[in-house]
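Need Cytochrome c domain-containing protein's 3D structure for a figure. Predict it.
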Amino acid sequence: MPRFTTSHIRALLLAVALVAALAALPSPTPAQDFPPDVVRGKAVYQRHCLSCHGAGGWGDGPDAAALRVPPANFHRFKSFLKSDEELLRTIEHGIVFSPMHSWQGQLSETERQDALAYIRLLVQQGR
Ligand code: HEC
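Structure prediction for Cytochrome c domain-containing protein:
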């Protein structure tokens, strides 16, 4: 049997403290990173949504004039008072008989949430 000296015990205590400290650290990044990322959202928006909804979200994108059903103007009360869930549902499933189709297959859930976060940011900005 090896004899324990004070320095052994000190080293042991240090090791225990280290393990305890590591256990107290926040757990690694969860699978779905939340809050949504507006920088990524901006890229998604500019690539897929801007053509109809416009750079500022006013519903005045370059393709808007040609549409029978005008794109939503996100600055309207009617639009921005809706909950995230409701707007995400629209982005996910689209609106029947309108040019707003479902983005389910084309964008991941994270990308849809990021795009909405960017829309929320646009709405906070004036003209
Ligand atoms: C082809 C044109 C078009 C494109 C592209 C488009 N939208 Fe739309 N969007 C519309 C139209 C039209 C509506 C319906 C407006 C209405 O019902 O009055 C709409 C409605 C919405 C609504 C619902 C607003 C509300 O008040 O309920 C959201 C949210 C939305 N779009 C997000 C997006 C996002 C995010 C993208 C890109 C991933 C996108 N749209 C791309 C045309 C488009």
